[in-house]
Amino acid sequence: MPRIAKVIVDLSLDKEFDYLVPPELESVLQTGSPVVVPFGHRDAKGFIVGFADSSEHENLKPVKAASGKKDLVDARVLNLARWMSDYYLAPLENCVRTVLPGAVRKKPSGFKELLHVEPTEKAGDEDEIRKLRMRAPKQASAIDALRLQKGITLQKLAQTIGVTTAVIRGLEKKGFVKIQRAIVARDPFVHDEVVPSKPHELMPQQTEAMDVVRQAVETGEPPVILLFGVTGSGKTEIYLQSIELVRSKGKGCIVLVPEIALTPQTVDRFRSRFGDCVAILHSELSQGERHDEWHRVHEGKADIVIGPRSAVFAPVKNLGLIVVDEEHEHSYKQEETPRYNARDVAVMRGHLEKCPVILGSATPSMESLWNAKRGKYRMVKMPARVDHQKMPVMHIVDMREEMGREGKLNVLSRDLCDAIHERMRAREQVMLLLNRRGFASSLVCPKCGEVATCPHCSLPMTYHRTTQRLVCHLCGCQQVAPSACPNKECRDPNFKYSGMGTQRVEDVLAKIFPKASIFRMDSDSMTAKDSYRRVLNEFRAHKIDILVGTQMIAKGLHFPNVTLVGVINADIGLHLADFRAGERTFQLLTQVAGRAGRGDVVGQVIVQTFTPFHPAIQAARRLDYDGFFDQEIEFRKELNYPPCSHLVAIHLRGVVEELVKMTGEAFMKKLTPLLAPDVLAAGPSPSPIEKINNEFRYQLDLRAARTADMTRPLREALKNFTWPEDVKWIVDVDAVSMM
Ligand code: ADP
Ligand code: ZN
Known about the structure:
Blueprint: E1 4-9, E2 17-20, E3 34-39, E4 42-52, E5 65-66, H1 75-87, H2 92-99, H3 102-106, E6 113-119, H4 126-135, H5 137-148, E7 152-153, H6 154-161, H7 165-173, E8 177-183, H8 204-219, E9 224-229, H9 235-248, E10 252-256, H10 264-274, E11 278-280, H11 287-298, E12 304-307, E13 319-325, H12 342-353, E14 357-361, H13 366-373, E15 378-382, E16 393-398, H14 399-406, H15 414-425, E17 429-433, E18 462-464, E19 469-471, E20 478-480, H16 502-512, E21 518-521, H17 531-540, E22 546-549, E23 562-567, H18 581-593, E24 604-609, H19 615-622, H20 625-638, E25 646-654, H21 657-671, E26 680-692, E27 695-704, H22 708-719, E28 728-733
Parallel strand pairs: 9-14, 9-15, 10-12, 10-13, 11-12, 13-14, 16-24, 17-22, 17-23, 21-22, 23-24
Antiparallel strand pairs: 1-2, 1-4, 3-4, 3-5, 6-7, 6-8, 18-19, 19-20, 25-27, 25-28, 26-27
Helix pairs in contact: 1-2, 1-12, 4-5, 5-6, 8-9, 18-19, 19-20
């Protein structure tokens, strides 16, 4: 019986095609092999994604050739792509593309070869140099530069001293230097020297954690460890020693970190322990850099990979461990097809490759905690900080009271303002955090700071730009947005959507603290590739007194001189539309609390909120994780929300609202009869953000204990449904964003 190869063709086609395996290629082709196949009237490149014994089609054509020497896709990584395609209801081609970055697939650049300049012996001869200095001072300064920076490229050297490359070519003729072609690995952090570090002697709680890891590495049990340790409890040290253990067995590791935490500081901790065996796969690397790093891993030159979510597909041979740091982070979820969650893919990859997975967090997700409580994961707790520092004191400021007392809403409450003054006097540093989800959509008067507030709930109302209305998401009350500031004393006509952005906070701070050096860090001010790093370095060097930023500054950064962290707006009331609002707030506050007081001064955290008695805020204040979990899980159970179920969201959007809605209804009609009775289906209903870019948005939500009970009928329904051209749809399995 002939073997049949299933091939996806690199022409963005969402389909597998069957081809015969010719006898001469029988021994060559494997799953993952790149091939050339006849396609229509021409040849096309593709990948083998699997084999079969028979085909539904007749007159199959044979595979023309195996292309390329190496198999770029590891069969196991390919299996992962298949699983993703099935689980997340995403086209296989899409998933294969995801596991194999474009930079590698297309191979546009190859390795970068550059001309390097090396000094010869003559360059060390002081007499010769002296003579040179007289006759050709520019050439002499080239040699000076060369002494400072060995292995510099021709271009760079010429640039450094401001001469043409011909000047340096002249040096070569005189025998002072050699110019050679060499491959450079475009290592993004190559210029940083790292000081080698040795493993710390473990503290008791770390020893216990390490014991579990060792058992997992040696026996495969438990397959997944949830390392629940407060900030500063020594989790990273556990990762490092686990990696060491795994490498001593000749195996490699993947460490996932949230995009935002992939700072040189993080990477250096791994490089200082493992040196050049560490590869970084980061979306901010240039295509060339990514190509080089990927191949370093593929060829086994680097066996530790650090990167954000896509690094979960790194071609590490003989994988021995996957670490997912900050496993609760939502940035592990990709918000485009395939909409995978790297944490869950990591657990799956671990399962497929029989290697243990460590999920680490100071604030684990409800999903992972739930899995731990049900025995699917093993939980290891590290409740104490390595430095025995007390957790900082959290002080809640009720902004409703504040507003009543001051008659207007100030960006900074009096308490926060006083505290900053005090820290400035003591020459300490302050971080101010703006929860972008909070005020961003409320109406604030740019002149007096008045906020459009619900007459019933004294909560800022949400401004809906499309309808020009203010809506209270607590009581549902609506009103037309006023054309001028409602404050009788003010009546400013510019009262319109302005939000309390980081910009405004910065402006206010500059007025109150004219002597302080203030820096604002948000996605607007952080565009250049390494400015994030530059700012953090300046902050560490205390060139900045007050750092203002969004969530971005709350993550895993260590600044011993920061003794006060202020949260400008912790509010959650505005986001009841999202059932994870409480969890997010709790996590954010707990993370932030871990930022203050890492030195010898106990830290202080001041949280401004309109909902001071919300359980999430109260639990965060008491640092009571168990209390929060117990209460939150009851709510999730009652309403059948994740983690007590899986949630699949189907988003529809289009310019004509009626059409979007009707299409949603028609699709639901098709889908409902296919669903088992225990699958909850809701919608279509308008999405919390009803309109984006002139497109109306509706969604259908499905909830059930098993994902397959939803995706299987969905696949069926999608097959038999014709979508109007003007309505676009997305299926989001295990949706994280409900907006
Ligand atoms: P986490 O990752 O949980 O925030 P880290 O691993 O970064 O914690 O540890 C916090 C600090 O304590 C780091 O500076 C680290 O080098 C140090 N540290 C960790 N474990 C030990 C130990 N056993 N002995 C001494 N110092 C340690
Ligand atoms: Zn209200």
